[in-house]
Design a protein that fits this description.
Elements: E1 2-3, E2 11-18, E3 21-22, E4 28-38, H1 40-46, E5 53-60, H2 70-85, E6 91-97, E7 101-105, E8 112-113, H3 116-125, H4 137-148, E9 155-162, H5 171-181, E10 186-192, H6 198-207, E11 212-215, H7 221-233, E12 237-245, E13 251-259, E14 263-264, E15 270-271, E16 276-284, E17 287-296, E18 305-315, E19 324-335, H8 339-343, H9 347-370, H10 374-391, H11 394-400, E20 404-408, E21 413-416, H12 422-430
Parallel strand pairs: 3-19, 5-6, 5-9, 9-10, 10-11
Antiparallel strand pairs: 1-19, 2-4, 4-17, 6-7, 6-8, 12-16, 12-18, 13-14, 13-17, 15-16, 18-19, 20-21
C-alpha cells in the first residue's frame, strides 16, 4: 500500500486483499482493491469560500406530477430544502423538465452563486413550478451539461427527479446524451411514486456515477434531497481514475465496484498507454469503496511468481501536465503445490462475489416474476434470500421479505407472495445493488 496525497488535500490509500496463491497451471487472479479517502471534510471546509462545487437540480414538471398533487408540492419543498443545504459560494441552477427543459433560476444560461440572497430568490422562483407536458429526460441533462460546463468548480453534479417514463424521447437519444455527459458531471437520480421505470433511473445514475433510489411517498422527498445535497457538499476531489497496469500476457477479465454498490466498470475503460487503462470512479469525500479486479495470467510452474497488476489511483493534472498519483497497490500471483494455500478463498473476495451474485439474483428473480415464470422467480429470489442471510445484509433481507414468504433463509426456501405492492417491488429492484461491507475479523 502506498499513499502519495499532499497533506493539504484529502488523503487516499489503497489496500489489496487477495489469495495470491495459484495451483500449477492456474490462471485467474481475484483481488478486492479497497480505496479510502480521509481528510476530505477538513479540506471541504477550507475550500468553502473557493466555489469548489457546481450543482444543477432537475425537477420533473410533466403533467403526471400533479396526480396526486402532493408530488409537485413535495418536489418544490424538496428543491427548497436542497437549496438551503448549499454551501456559500456554490454555483447552482434549477431546471424544470418536461418534453423540453426550462431554466427556473437564475435563468439566461447562467449559474447563480449561493448566498442568503440567491437562496431566497431561488426558493421564490420555485413557486412558478407547475405541471404540464411530457417527459424527455435527455433534454434536461443536456441543459444541465451546458450550465455546468461554464463552471470551473472541482465538483460538478446534477440531481434529477422524475415520476414517469421517458416517453417523449427516443431511447437512443437518452443513451447518446448520457454518453456525452459521462465524465463531465456526476448525477444522482430519484424516482418519486411508482409510475417510473427503474431501469431508466438506475441507468442514468450508473452512467453518470451517481446514486439511484425510490421515494415512494412524496412526503419524504425533502429529507432525501437534503441528504443528497449534504453528500455533494462533502465532496472535494473529482474525476479520480483507477488505473490498472498489467504485464505482457495478462488480460483483465473485469473491474467492478462492489461496495457500497455494485457497478460494472469493465466497459468504461479508456486506454492510458501500453498495457494500462483507466476506470472512472467519480467524486470523493470522506469514504471508502471496494473494487473487484479479476485478471488472467499466463500459466506457470510451481515456484514462479509475478506481478499480476498494479492499481494506481490518479487525479487529472492541469492541461499539459501528467496526472497526480494518489495511492497505489499491487496484485500478485504465486504458483504453489500447497493444496490448502491454492484453494483458500480470500474472505473479502468471497464476500463481495456473493454480494454481486445477490444483486443479480434479485434482478433476475424480479424479471422472471414479471414474466410469469413462477419456478424461475422462486429459485432466484430464494437464492437471494440465502445470500442476504449469509452475508448479514439485513436491509436487503427485509426488502426481500416483502416480496416472498421466507420458509428457511439459510436454505433459500421461499414462496412468492400472491400480492406485492408496486412500491415494495420497485424498492427491492432499485436497491438491489446496495451492498454491505465484509465483516472484519
Amino acid at each position: 500500500m502506498a499513499n502519495f496525497a499532499k497533506p493539504s488535500a484529502p488523503r487516499f490509500s489503497v489496500e489489496v486483499y487477495q489469495n495470491e496463491f495459484l495451483p500449477e497451471g492456474g490462471r485467474d487472479v481475484h483481488a478486492i482493491v479497497t480505496v479510502t479517502s480521509t481528510g476530505g471534510a477538513a479540506a471541504t471546509r477550507a475550500a468553502a469560500t473557493r466555489g469548489s462545487a457546481a450543482v444543477v437540480i432537475m425537477v420533473d414538471c410533466s403533467g403526471s406530477m400533479e396526480y396526486p398533487p402532493d408530488k409537485m408540492r413535495g418536489a418544490r419543498e424538496a428543491t427548497a430544502a436542497a437549496i438551503d443545504t448549499l454551501r456559500d459560494g456554490t454555483a447552482f441552477a434549477v431546471i424544470a423538465g418536461t418534453h423540453v427543459a426550462k431554466e427556473v433560476y437564475p435563468g439566461q444560461g447562467r449559474l447563480a452563486v449561493a448566498d442568503a440572497a440567491t437562496r431566497a430568490q431561488a426558493k421564490e422562483a420555485l413557486r412558478s413550478l407547475s405541471s404540464g407536458g411530457g417527459t424527455a429526460i435527455g433534454t434536461w441533462l443536456r441543459l444541465a451539461d451546458g450550465l455546468l460546463r461554464q463552471s470551473t468548480a472541482t465538483i460538478r453534479h446534477g440531481i434529477l427527479l422524475t415520476d414517469g417514463r421517458n416517453e417523449h424521447e427516443d431511447p437512443a437519444v437518452l443513451r447518446a446524451t448520457l454518453e456525452a455527459c459521462a465524465g463531465r458531471f456526476t448525477c444522482d437520480a430519484r424516482g418519486v411514486g411508482t409510475d417510473w421505470e427503474v431501469k431508466e433511473v438506475t441507468g442514468i445514475a450508473s452512467a453518470l456515477l451517481g446514486s439511484a433510489d425510490i421515494v415512494a411517498d412524496p412526503a419524504h422527498l425533502s429529507e432525501d434531497f437534503t441528504l443528497m445535497m449534504e453528500n455533494v457538499m462533502g465532496k472535494e476531489v473529482a474525476d479520480v481514475a483507477l488505473r490498472l497496469w498489467t504485464p505482457v500476457g495478462v488480460e483483465i477479465q473485469y473491474v467492478k465496484q462492489v461496495a457500497p454498490t455494485v457497478q460494472d466498470l469493465s466497459d468504461r475503460r479508456t486506454e492510458a498507454g501500453p498495457r494500462a487503462g483507466d476506470y472512472p470512479t467519480g467524486s470523493w469525500g470522506d469514504e471508502s469503496r471496494e473494487y473487484h479486479v479479476c485478471v488472467r495470467v499466463p500459466a506457470a510452474s510451481v515456484g514462479q511468481e509475478m506481478l499480476a497488476a498494479r492499481a494506481t489511483l490518479l487525479l487529472p493534472g492541469a492541461p499539459g501536465e501528467p496526472p497526480a498519483t494518489l495511492a497505489q497497490g499491487l496484485v500478485r500471483a504465486v504458483w504453489t503445490d500447497d493444496l490448502v494455500a491454492s484453494t483458500a478463498i480470500n474472505a473479502q473476495v468471497a464476500h463481495y462475489t456473493g454480494q454481486a451474485e445477490l444483486a443479480q439474483a434479485i434482478q433476475q428473480g424480479l424479471e422472471a416474476r414479471k414474466m410469469g415464470d413462477v419456478d424461475g422467480a422462486t429459485a432466484k429470489l430464494g437464492r437471494a434470500v440465502q445470500l442476504a442471510s449469509a452475508s448479514g445484509n439485513a436491509d436487503t433481507a427485509k426488502l426481500l421479505a416483502k416480496v416472498v414468504d421466507v420458509v428457511d433463509a439459510a436454505a433459500g426456501t421461499v414462496r412468492l407472495k400472491a400480492k406485492v405492492a408496486d412500491a415494495d417491488e420497485m424498492t427491492l429492484e432499485t436497491r438491489s445493488i446496495q451492498t454491505v461491507r465484509v465483516k472484519k475479523s
